[in-house]
């Protein structure tokens, strides 16, 4: 208990950090697109470090809400989205493995820093620990300075685009030029500049018109609700069924470590040639398996039975976390990846904020954890089923359009099949050396 407040009020600090980080993820994408990912990460590292240092001098809980919850959360948001987007720009052939290694950093950091921070609190109190963490987080500025932007040559960009994407890109550029008030050879005016910025912003978020992305966005709302409940209520449930405090904490350690293994190994597996074109369905399997594990929790009443749950849930949780940016990139393309990731992380914010209280209310009303875990499991399974249905509907439309083109015009059939094939493998193509 700090500042004469109970634990329920101090727990809001952690919720504010997570919620602010996700809510401000589009801001990180916007700054990264407008200026550079390097600038966004450096600015975010400075804000996060400043928030932690100011928190060490806080005199009330409200001060911690602003400095640690809001300021540090915004700083983390400016760092997180551009850093993840940079991976998609650097890697193409081994994209899943690269994202797996990158996403495992948060798990490794949590696993290492948790005992370190506890030791710092015992040595220097929580104020001293926050001050030292502020200096440690300032190294994000150094990490941001090392993020060298990549500038692709025009012929390399053309080689990476498929026929359909290149035509779409050219049409978007022509539409942008025709709608803009800026004309070549004329002096730049204020209304001209504002018009250019407005249409560029619309172009950056044009992926909202993609049906595939909209389906993914809806599924993420259910996914984010379901995946947060086990992390919050696994330990209380284990204690409720008679597991000791030490073994209950060990379950979370297993879940975290196996999650790191899932990040890397599942990323490596989905980069294999036999699975590379099925990454979308591997993502669905990982989400569905997480949901199935949650449905089985109420039947696990002892520590030996809960250990396999921690292993399976941790592995598939790490798997879907590694594949989420890859699937997003495959849907929207590398051109819109940064903005799309900002929206994807933004959609996690509200479910992360409301799912623990809803699960807690269910526990209070029913007296057991069964309803809470059931709702979590069905939420993730519904997310997976929604994506499966969307994929099946899309395949049916493709089959119908393919049969129509076959019966109508042979030339149209060749063009349609080529366009579809190129579009499907665009994310895996790389510029070949001459």
Explain what the structure shows:
It is globular, with a radius of gyration of 24 Å. With 434 residues, it is mainly alpha-helical. It contains 17 helices and no strands. It starts with 6 loop residues before the first helix and ends in a 9-residue tail after the last helix.
Short characterization:
With 434 residues, the chain is an all-alpha fold. Helices cover 81% and strands 0% of the residues. The longest helix has 43 residues, at 95-137.
> Major sheet: size, sense and barrel closure?
none
Q: What fraction, in percent, of the residue positions are helical?
A: over 70%
From the alpha carbons, calculate the radius of gyration and give it in angstroms. Answer: 24 Å
How many individual β-strands? 0
Report strand %: under 5%
Structural class: mainly alpha
Question: What series of H and E elements makes up the topology?
Answer: HHHHHHHHHHHHHHHHH
Mean pLDDT across residues: 77
Alpha carbon gap, first and last residue: 66 Å
> Count of DSSP helices?
17
Shape: globular
**Uncertain stretches of 5 or more adjacent residues:** 157-166, 176-188, 408-434
């Amino acid at each position: 208990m700090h500042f004469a407040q109970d634990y329920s009020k101090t727990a809001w600090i952690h919720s504010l950090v997570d919620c602010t980080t996700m809510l401000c993820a589009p801001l990180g994408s916007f700054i990264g697109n407008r200026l550079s990912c390097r600038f966004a990460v450096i600015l975010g590292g400075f804000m996060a470090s400043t928030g932690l240092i100011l928190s060490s001098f806080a005199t009330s809980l409200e001060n911690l809400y602003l400095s640690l919850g809001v300021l540090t959360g915004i700083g983390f948001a400016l760092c997180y989205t551009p850093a993840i987007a940079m991976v998609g720009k650097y890697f193409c052939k081994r994209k899943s493995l690269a994202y797996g290694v990158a996403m495992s950093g948060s798990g490794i950091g949590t696993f290492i820093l948790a005992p370190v921070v506890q030791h710092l609190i015992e040595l220097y109190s929580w104020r001293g620990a926050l001050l030292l963490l502020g200096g440690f987080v300032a190294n994000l500025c150094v990490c941001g300075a090392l993020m060298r932007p990549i500038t692709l040559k025009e012929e390399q960009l053309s080689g990476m685009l498929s026929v359909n994407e290149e035509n779409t890109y050219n049409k978007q550029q022509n539409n942008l030029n025709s709608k803009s008030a800026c004309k070549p050879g004329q002096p730049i005016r204020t209304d001209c500049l504002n018009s250019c910025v407005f249409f560029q912003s619309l172009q950056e978020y044009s992926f909202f018109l993609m049906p595939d992305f909209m389906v993914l966005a809806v599924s993420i709302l259910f996914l984010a609700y379901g995946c947060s409940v086990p992390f919050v209520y696994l330990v209380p449930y284990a204690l409720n069924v008679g597991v000791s405090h030490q073994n209950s904490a060990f379950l979370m350690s297993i879940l975290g470590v196996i999650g790191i293994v899932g990040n890397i190994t599942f990323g490596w597996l989905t980069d294999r040639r036999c699975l590379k074109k099925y990454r979308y369905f591997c993502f669905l399997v990982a989400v569905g398996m997480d949901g199935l594990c949650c449905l089985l929790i109420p039947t696990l009443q002892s520590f030996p039975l809960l250990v396999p749950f921690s292993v399976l849930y941790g592995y598939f949780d790490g798997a879907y976390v590694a594949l989420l940016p890859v699937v997003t990139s495959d849907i929207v393309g590398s051109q819109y990846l940064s903005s799309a990731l900002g929206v994807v992380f933004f959609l996690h914010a509200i479910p992360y904020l409301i799912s623990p209280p809803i699960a807690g209310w269910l526990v209070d009303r029913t007296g057991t954890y069964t309803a809470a875990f059931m709702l979590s499991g069905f939420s993730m399974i519904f997310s997976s089923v929604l994506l499966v249905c969307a994929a099946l509907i899309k395949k049916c439309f493709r089959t119908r359009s393919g049969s129509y083109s076959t019966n109508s015009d042979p030339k149209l059939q060749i063009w349609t099949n080529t366009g579809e094939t190129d579009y499907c493998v665009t994310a895996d193509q790389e510029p070949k050396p001459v």
